[in-house]
Amino acid sequence: MFSKGINYKVPRNLLFIFEMIALFLMFMYYKNSLDRSTIIYGLSLIFIVYISNFLLLKITTGDNYIFLIVTMLSSIGIIMIYRINPQQGFKQIVWIGLGIVLFFATYFMIKKIKSLKSWFIYYFFASIALFGMTLLLGERFKGAINWISIGGITFQPTEVIKILTIFLIASYYANYDKFKEKKWGNYYLVGIMYLFIFFLFLQRDLGSVLIFSSLFLALQYIYHEDRKLVLLNFAVLILSSILGYIIFPHVRIRFEIWINPWEHINTTGYQITQSLFAIAEGGFFGTGLGLGHPDFIPEVSKDFIFSAICEEMGILTGIGIIMLFLILVYRGFKISINQKNKFFRIVALGISILFGIQSFIIFGGVVKMIPLTGITIPFVSYGGSSMLSSFIALGILQVASEELDIEEV
User: Is residue 135 classed as helix, strand or coil in its secondary structure?
Assistant: First the structure.
């Protein structure tokens, strides 16, 4: 659908050069402490990224730029994470490598399955099962219960539920005419989404509430016929936000430090004020890799990686990251518009909206445009669950970028 007449060789080679320069800078900065295994893993990742971009061009007729954009974002993220914490950087290399493997595995698996649009009930029960596991086995972190640890492996079920929810919404609207014929069928999806949001409230994961609500409202606004119901759901979202502010103390704290972090600069406002200091210190071109103080910001490799990048690589690099996300979302919308299969059209749109919402929430949070929510930047921030689920979502988007046989899916 996208590949004809497009030369992907130049951006792929530029990405390779960028990664080699970054590895050289890391070597110069850590020349006395950089171990051989890290160099080997770094070179292996560069090789995997280059070969993956090359192979993708051979196996798909879809949009190869989305994978190029994501590998560029991941490369910038790994540079900054390794500079902040070499041990985390080493783990992130492994997560990116696994993410790329999952990207290709998802791509081939989704292409083989022919009845995805008919699995509405399975998406629902799988999501409920994951919510139940989170509430029963989850660990509290920053006021929210959203992590599960099994056999030493820690992950966020919510990351998987996001993808299942997109499939669930796509399945509903792809079969909308059938649902309308059933009693209360017009309200099935609304009831399910309210149930999901209720579970997120129980987990006190209000950042995910914002993501799920925004994703649902955006897709409902596009595909639902009852405009009054859309307005009603929007009103419920506003009321839920007010209710969350009243019920949960950590929400009130985040709102207060958003309004005036300077009043609490030594306590609850310390993180956001240090973020603003870091961005201001970097200026347009940054202090230089290794010459800033991103370690002053708590959780800098996760929630505030964007601030660290702006400090040492400059605001221009930060703008570049935002532009890469804008291009990624734009190409996702383009994929959706060009896709003739309604189910995959909605899936592509949902994944694009998901990437856009998540990136906007965290960019807005670290620059004090909106209150902080604890959401990480897809493909850039440190973390395994987010990285792997994001690559899975990208693999699905890659399938959607191809011309699909409507009768087969």
Answer: helix
